[in-house]
Every structure is written in C-alpha cells, then in structure tokens.
Amino acid sequence: MRKNHVLHVMKSEWKKTRKTPVQLVTMLLVPMLSVLFLSWCLSYVMVLVNRYSGAVYFPEEISAEEMETEFSEYYSVFSFKNGTMDDAKARVSNGKVDCALVVEDRFIHIIYDSSILTSPSALKEAKDLGLDISYLLAGRQYYNDAYEIYPEVETIDMSSSADRLEGYLDRVGGVIGMIIFLMMASNAMALSARTITGEKERQTFDTLVLCPADLSKILIGKELVMHLEIFLSGIVGFLAAIAGMAIWSPKEFAAIDENGTEVFGAVLAIVLIIFAASLVITAIFSIIGSAFAETKKASLFSSAGMVLISVSAMLPSFVSTDLVKYFPLSNWTPVLKSICKDEFSYTPIFTALAIGILLFGLSMILSSGLWERTSE
Predict the structure, then answer these.
(1) What is the C-alpha separation between 237 and 357, in angstroms, rounded?
(2) What band does 247 get if pLDDT is binned at 50, 70 and 90?
(3) Per-residue pLDDT averaged across 319-344, rounded?
(4) What CATH number is given to the structural domain containing 134?
(5) pLDDT score, position 358
(6) Which domain range does residue 59 map to?
C-alpha cells in the first residue's frame, strides 16, 4: 500500500507536468540552448586568443610593395608599409596590430605590448619574419644560398589526440559542467517552488492532510518526479554540449573516436554522473522548499544552493586531490578526463552514486519533518 501511495502521487505529479507541455519543453530547451551558447562562446574565445595580426615598417628607400610580394605568401597576417618607429608604436598601442617590425639601417626592431598581446605565436612568427628580412636585405644571393645550406624546419607535435582532448576539457569542461548543473538547479528551484512550497502558498496543503496517504509518502512522490525531470534536463544539457563540441571544436570531437574509448562504457559513466548529480540537486532544493511556506523566503536560500552547486562543480579546477572524483557534482571533469584517456574506473562513479543516494534519502527524512512543521 505504501508503494501504491507513492506511485499514485508520482503519476499525479507527472500528469500535472504533462498538462503544461510548454513548461516541459521550456525546461528542456533552457539547458540545451544555454549550453550551446556557452560552447560557442568558449570556442570563439579560444579562436580569438590564437588570432593575431602584425605590421612591418620599412624606410622610404625600400619598396614595401616588393617586400609584400616576397613575403606575403608565408606571412599573410603581416601587412607591409613604409613608415617610422612612431607609426609602429602608434598602431601597437592603439591595438590595431599585436606586434610590429621596424626595419632600420642596422637593426630590425620587434615592438609589442605584453598587456594586450593575445597569442605567443605572434612573437615567434615576427622573429622568423625578421630573420628572413635580414637575410634578404643582406643580399638576395646570400638569402638563396642560406636556404640551400640550412635544412628546412619541421614542427613535430608530440601531444597525442588524448592529450589535446584533455587540454580541451581543462579549458572548458569545468565551465560546461557548472552550466549544466546550474540549469538543473534552476529547474529544481522552480519545481520545488511549484510542487512543495506552492502547496502552502496555494492553500492546498490542508487538502493533502486529509488524503489517506501520509504526508511523507506524498512528499517522496513529489521528490521522485522532481528528480526525474531534473535528470532529463541534465541529459539534454549534456547532449547539447556534445553537439556544440562537434560543431565548434571538430578536432577535439574527432579525438574522442581516435582515442578508442569504449562508447557504451563512457555513455553509462556519464549517465551515472548526471544521475548522481540530479539526486544531490533534488536533495538540496527539496530541503529548501520544505523549510519555508513562502516562495520568496525559499528563493533567498535557493541562491545559496546555487552557489554551493557552482563551487562544487568547479572544485577540481582549484583542488588537485583525487578525492573530488568520489563526490557528485565535483567528479564531472575528473571522470571526463579519465574517459578521454581510456583509463576510467566505475569505482569512483559508483561511490559518487552511493553518496548521492544517501544524501537523497537523508533529504527525504529531513524534508518530511520540515514540510509538516512549516504547516503548523
């Protein structure tokens, strides 16, 4: 009978959700669009950081047009002009270029402002260009002979696809996880306000008291449905993150397949992470919703819950200990990185899941007492 009461409440709460399809669609669209937008922003920032431009200034006796013809094929990000040191400094200080070269009789100066320089590659390419210009100005024949004598330079990247993928997760994984969990928390806050605190604001709590089922069983049914909806929003958010990675970071997305990670195991691990996180998020907001009879008061403490969730999600960025992979919300980035290395283990994931279930069970006990107490 107890089980039937809980199932009846779950069906009732789910029917309420199904009666408002706009709210259900909005609940799932918000994390999807938010994660897609954030993925685009982060990918744009990374491209912007690696983008740079430069300029080369020659004295009047040297033709800038000839120099541009000679070097533009290999140094396309640099423009070639006739000008002075003051012209170069003005363009750098105004942010028009990241660095500038000034060719004089005996020196080639490289000018940059470290406070606005976005890419270290700009200085490396400027030095290479300055060396090539010096060869050319010293004599075209010497320039040609030098390239015949000296071997060509080849750049070899020793990092593997797994290393590049791990570096990508270091930059964006924690932020993406935090946004997904915050979207789940915002849905939890709204659901808690509507289904738990709202019963007292709508003055329908007295009707629940007259039900044959205990208030604790009714609350458990509400929490289970709330958890299901939060879990679904987390899955949608993660799928949006994968889509954003495939669209705006195709090299890193291709590295997932190159690394040979077992797809089924990785998917199962991620689903378990999101499931454990949704248990903790549900526990936090069910306690907050049950502790107050007014939504305004509950919303104040809900802000503290959002801060707690965001800090937990970003914890691996500040704490190097391996213990974080055993806790829900904090184990997002460590588990993703272990999946990319094909070294992940289910032990910390199941531990995090057990902690999530324990916290969810404790929240049911505490929430039941608070829910009944606030009605007195």
Answers:
(1) 22
(2) confident
(3) 84
(4) 3.40.190
(5) 95
(6) 54-149
DSSP string, 5-39: HHHHHHHHHHHHHHT-HHHHHHHHHHHHHHHHHHH
For residue 214, pLDDT over 60 is answered with yes
Residue 207 and residue 123 share a domain = no
Instruction: Tell whether 197 is covered by a domain.
Output: yes
State the Cα–Cα distance between residues 332 and 324, nearest whole angstrom: 9
Q: Where are the alpha helices (DSSP H) in the chain?
A: 2-18, 21-49, 64-71, 85-93, 120-138, 140-149, 161-192, 198-201, 205-209, 215-248, 250-258, 263-291, 295-314, 332-340, 346-373
Give the Cβ contact number of residue 172 at 10 Å.
23
**End-to-end alpha carbon distance in the chain:** 27
Count structural domains, the chain: 2
What pLDDT sits at residue 107? 81
Residue found by looking up tokens 């057990």 in the block:
354
Show Cβ contacts of residue 205 under 8 Å, excluding neighbours closer than 6 positions.
199, 375
Task: Return the percentage of the chain with pLDDT > 70, whole number.
Answer: 80
